[in-house]
Amino acid sequence: MTFRYDAAVAGRGVDVAFEVAAGETLALLGPNGAGKSTVLDVAAGLLRPDSGRVELAGRALTVAGAGGRDVLVPPHDRQVSLLAQEPLLFPHLSVLDNVAFGPRSRGMGRSASRDVARRWLAEVGIEDLAARRPGEISGGQAQRAAVARALAADPRLLLLDEPMAALDVAVTPALRQTLRRVLADRTVLLVTHDALDALLLADRVAVIEGGRIVDHGETSRVLSRPRSRFTAQLAGLNMLAGTWDDGAVRTATGLRIEGTPGDPAPAAGADVVAVFPPGAVSVFLEPPGGSPRNALPVTVTHLEPHGGQVRVRTTELSADVTPQAAAELDLAPGASACFVVKAAEIAVHAL
C-alpha cells in the first residue's frame, strides 16, 4: 500500500508531491506557515486543493483540476485518521467509549468495539483509565487516549499534526516512546517541529519551505547534512551557504570559510553548505592570531540558557559558551564579537 500526494492549494501557496510506502513514517518539517498543516488537511479530506491528486492504496481520495470529474471522498470514508495537537476527546463519553468510537462508526458491535478499545488502551498504557471521563485525566493521558482512538479505527494512513506540542516537557518522552512502539508497522505522515521526533519516529523527512519541498531523504541524512537553514537550526547546527572556491566556501557576503569537504570534493563553483555545531565555536571580542582558523565577524542578537551554557545567537549563527565566559566578554544584544571555528570542525556538503 502506497500513499501518493500531488496537490496544489493556490490560495495558500502550497504545491508539493511525495509518496509514503506501506509501514513507513514520513515526517514533514518546516517553519510556521510553510504549508505542513495544509498538506494534512488535504490528505484528511478537510480541504479541497485547486489541483492535484491524493491516492491511498490505489484508490483516488482527491482529484481536482484534472479536466475531468473531480473526486473528494469525505473524511469518514477515506480510511485516514488525523491526530491533532489537542486530544479532542468527546467529554461526555468515557475513555473506553472514546476509543471505541472508531470501530463503532464502522459498524462493529458494541461489545466487539469495546474489546478493540481495551486492547489499544492497554497498548498505550492507560487501560486502568477506561471508565474515566476526559475531564478526569491529565493532558498526557488524554493524548495517549487520542492515540488509541486513532489507531482503533484501523486507518490505512495515520496523520499526526504535532501530537506532543501541547504537552508538558515531563510527559513528552514517555508518549514519544509509546508512539515509536505502536507506529512501527503503520503508514504515517507526521508534522513536527522537533528534531528528536523526526529522529525517533520517522524513516524519511521532507522539508517544506514556502509551500515547496526543499529537501527530502532519510532522516539521518537530512538532519546531519541539512540543505536549508531551517533544518540546520532544527538540528541545532549552524549553516552557511555559498559556492566552492579554491578549497573553501565563499558566501554571498564575501566570507571565505575553510572546512572539510566530502568525498568526492565539490567541483569548483558548485553550490555548497558549511555546517558546524554551536559547541565548535569559540567567541572573542577581536579576531585572534595564531593558527589559521575561520574568524567570522558577528553582532549578538540575544542570549539564552542552553543545557548549563549560554547560547549566543546572531542573525545567522549561534555559539555555546560558559556563563563565566559570557560575563567576562560582557556579551549582550548589540555587541560586536568574532566567532572562530577550526576548519576541521566544519563539514562541507554539496547541494
UniProtKB/TrEMBL annotation:
Residue ranges annotated for the ABC transporter domain, each copy included: 3-235
Keywords: ATP-binding, Molybdenum, Nucleotide-binding, Transport
Signal peptide (from-to): none
PROSITE patterns: ABC_TRANSPORTER_1, ABC_TRANSPORTER_2, MOP
Keyword set includes Transmembrane helix: no
Gene Ontology MF, one: ATP hydrolysis activity
InterPro entries (alphabetical): AAA+_ATPase (IPR003593), ABC_SmlMolc_Importer (IPR050093), ABC_transporter-like_ATP-bd (IPR003439), ABC_transporter-like_CS (IPR017871), Mo/tungstate-bd_C_term_dom (IPR008995), Mop_domain (IPR004606), P-loop_NTPase (IPR027417), Transp-assoc_OB_typ1 (IPR005116)
Mop domain segment(s): 289-350
GO annotation terms (biological process): molybdate ion transport
PANTHER family per record: SPERMIDINE/PUTRESCINE IMPORT ATP-BINDING PROTEIN POTA, SPERMIDINE_PUTRESCINE IMPORT ATP-BINDING PROTEIN POTA
Protein name from the UniProt record: Molybdate transport system ATP-binding protein
Organism of origin: Promicromonospora thailandica
